[in-house]
TrEMBL record, chain A:
Residues 26-93 form the RNA polymerase sigma-70 region domain. This is Sigma-70 family RNA polymerase sigma factor. The keyword DNA-binding applies. It holds the Pfam family Sigma70_r4_2. The lineage of its organism: Bacteria, Pseudomonadati, Bacteroidota, Cytophagia, Cytophagales.
UniProtKB/TrEMBL annotation, chain B:
Pfam families: HEAT_2, zf-HC2. This is HEAT repeat domain-containing protein. Residues 9-43 form the Putative zinc-finger domain. It comes from Hymenobacter properus.
Amino acid sequence: MTLTSTSDEELMAAVRADDLDQLVPLFERYHGPLFNYLTRLTNDRDLSEDLTQTVFERILKYRSSYQPTQPFKAWVYQMARNVHADHWQRQQKLRVADSDVEDVERTGALRGGAFSQMRISNSHDDLHEALNLLPVPQREILVLNRFQGFGYEEIGKLLGCTAEAARVKAHRALQALRKIYFAN
Amino acid sequence: MKTPELSACHELEALLPAYVERSLPAAEAERVAAHLPDCPGCQLQVNQLRALSNDLDAALPETPRTALRANFMAMLEEQKQLLKPEAAAPTPVPTEAKEAKVVSMWPTAGLNNWLRVAASVVLIATGVLLGRNLHWGSQGGTAGLASNATPNQEAHAQLARALTPANGQVVSASDRIQLVTNTTKETEPGDATVQVLLNTLNFDPNPNVRLATCEALYRLRDDPRVREGLVHALSVQTDPNVQITLIDMVVSMRVRRAVPQLEKLSKRPDALPVVRAQATAGIGKLI
């Protein structure tokens, strides 16, 4: 199979036409970056594996809604954002249902997050801890820009703002991260 | 002397990330470069930003366990089996299970919105009804009694009669809201009420009655006709409140079939911008 040279969009068009095997090369190209993106957002590897799997399930489920003219990358990241947002919303619901322990849970989650991150990669403890202290929207924009190789144009499209606005947001997020990172 | 210096620093702070990134326009880059030698504070910031940038670049990507690939392959195999027509018999169950898994996080979100809509409808209806106490006592009272006393079928017929415009609109809008709200409390999914309510949603001239009907239909959402009816209603309703309510409903019920209608709605020139925005957001949540 000489699938590696085929574009994302061609592969997805084939998937859309029920040639599901063409999703395999797309999985190979994207599952790593998507897992990374979700891990940075959630700070939870197990959860991110589940969410990554959900993204690919949704790709299959909603394959007929893919328009071959749209960039696959933008489409799949939009889906990953939705999967993450759905998860976030469900967590919020659980918290509201049990609001008495909300604060305890939050602190617990934060500490747990810090621990699991330490387990992940020792050499960048401080950086990850600082990233995790950023509000999610700021963290997301930095993750897209610095870890996922998104240009400001692409970020703008994904977040529904202009490239210039995306650039300003990314710079603000970087300044915010700097303040946390060098706080001590 | 210090104040202008500080405000200059404050102003430059926003430019420093771009400066470090070397993406500043030449004129601004020169301004920063000219300021830096005299300002230890900004120098420190630039150094920190450089160090941070290097650390970000050096951060290693997280790699998933191989189980992720195995799970993906298993899922793909399962989906391929579903495509084979012969395998139709054993397959519906897994599909249902999967759908349920994805859908489960939404209904509660929808319910909250619905409670809000329901509360406002009930408040309006109660207010109006209190104001026309006598009128309600003489006319609606019999309707209420009848619906309690008669079997289901007769109740549907009565509901249909009361809600049908051909009736000459003898029943006021607030009474119709009350009827729609009351009747569905005692009905079960799958009965004729759904059809009556869908007719009301399509043909009742009053948007508040249609809103109350939406609420009633949401309670009967297990009936497949409801999903179909909502998709249809999306294409014909023109009242912005009803439109937004319908969008919320199809999103919270995850009615994927509604996406084409939402796309049309998001481009309809006669729809309010807020409706179009809601439709666009809805598409984003559904795909």
